Amino acid sequence: MTAATTRAPGQYRLRVQEFISFREQGILVVRGLVPPEDVEELRAHTEDVIHGRLELPGVAPAPVGAAGRGHSTILDASRLGEVERRYVRIHMLHRLLAIHERFLLHPRILDVLEALIGPDLMAMQTMLFLKPPGADGQGWHQDSYYIPTLPDSLCGAWLAIDRADEANGCMHFAVGSQHEPIYPDAQNRARHYPAGAPVDLVDIAHASATDETQNGLVPVARGYADREVRVEAEPGDVVFFGGHILHRSHANTTVDRFRRAFVGHYANARSYTEWGGGNAQHILARGRTHLPFAQPRFGTPCAANRPQAVPEAPAETMMADGDGMATAPTNPSRLRPEAHDHADRSSNY
Ligand SMILES: O=C(O)CCC(=O)C(=O)O
User: Fold this and answer.
1) What integer best gives the mean pLDDT of the chain?
2) Which of 57, 156, 267, 319 could be disulfide-bonded to 271 (CB atoms 3.0-4.6 Å)?
3) How remote is the CA of residue 158 from the centroid of ligand 1, in Å?
4) Atom of ligand 1 nearest to the CA of 143
5) Per-residue pLDDT for 225 more than 60?
6) At CA 237, angle to CA 302 and CA 47, rounded to 5?
């Protein structure tokens, strides 16, 4: 997959039942969403990271030979070196490496997000999970706790690079908990609820801790104990999940299998955020917005670098006419199909 190629297998059109399922379950698993050749490119890239063949800007280089040589993903556990342990998870590489930007803006992933939280999409964050054999998991947490957007429209897209199952630490979700508020800690309550939290909302501490005696979300998660689902995934499957749903993953207990995944986080581009440098640092992936946005640093085609992606004028006040209903469209260009980024979807990449 390169910025210039167009081999994406076409637009993914969400079905109504999938939309309903996302709302009811809090997650949506789209099997085989990313084509095998794209997953293979990403897998090969992670091999370069694991084996220290790629210098990551700003990240200390891997010790020579730390991960052995060769291209196999099946590594003898005794050869797992510092590099794999250090790189359980790497954040925000889309700001440093073109391949991460392209996967953050993968059109098939954006197709689904557009229907779930769009139409206007802001691409905010990436995480590359390597999760080698023996690596720890992550305890119960809510992603919007870390990445607040107002209004809150955060959605994660978790792309399996390897097969993920219970043994190597697949994702678990507490179905139903997508309706929970965000449980803040005492320090960040105002970030989530600037105008006041629900009166009985308790502060929690140590979200994400794998130690259940420490993680303040454990009592909340217990309320969903009979609805915890384990999501096994094959390479190319993508799990979409909203920012409120409680989720976790267990340790990778295998001795010979990585559990690699690429995760992007997105919000509706009309949500305000101060996270990650604010809206001006996040890429307009689809649609338009009245808020500032960033260009993709490596030129991956998306809404931000289409000619129509000038910052939108502030919305005109809705005027009531004779029947009391709104009148003029706030911005006529929004109504012209050719002015929207779907018009030339085939040239997405
Ligand atoms: O992949 C994992 O193990 C955890 C991922 C996760 O919790 C997230 O993306 O929010």
Assistant:
1) 83
2) 267
3) 8
4) 10
5) yes
6) 80
Q: pLDDT tens-digit profile of 138-175?
A: 999 999 999 999 999 999 999 999 999 999 999 999 99
Close Cβ partners of 201 (under 8 Å, ≥ 6 residues apart):
181, 183, 184, 193
Report the nearest-CA residue for atom 10 of ligand 1.
143
**Range list of H helices, 93-239:** 98-104, 107-117, 143-146, 189-192, 218-222
DSSP 8-state secondary structure symbol assigned to residue 120: S
Cα of 171 vs centre of ligand 1, distance in Å, is 7
Name residues contacting ligand 1 (CB within 6 A).
127, 129, 137-138, 143, 156, 158, 171, 247, 249, 261, 263
Ligand 1 centroid distance, CA of 308 (Å): 35
Residue 60, pLDDT score = 59
Q: Ligand 1 centre and the CA of 42: distance in Å?
A: 18
Taken in order of first residue, the domains within the chain and their CATH numbers are 16-314 (2.60.120.620)
What is the C-alpha end-to-end distance of the chain, expressed in Å?
A: 8
Q: What pLDDT digit, counting tens, does each position of 77-127 carry?
A: 444 445 545 567 889 999 999 999 999 999 999 999 999 999 999 999 999
Q: CA–CA separation, 14 vs 25, rounded Å?
A: 16
The protein residue with its alpha carbon nearest to ligand 1, atom 2, reads: 249
Distance between CA atoms of 269 and 293, rounded to whole angstroms?
A: 8
Q: What is the pLDDT of residues 43-74, one digit of tens each?
A: 999 999 888 888 776 665 555 444 433 323 33
* Contacts with 313 (C-beta within 8 Å, 6 or more apart), sequence order: 290, 331
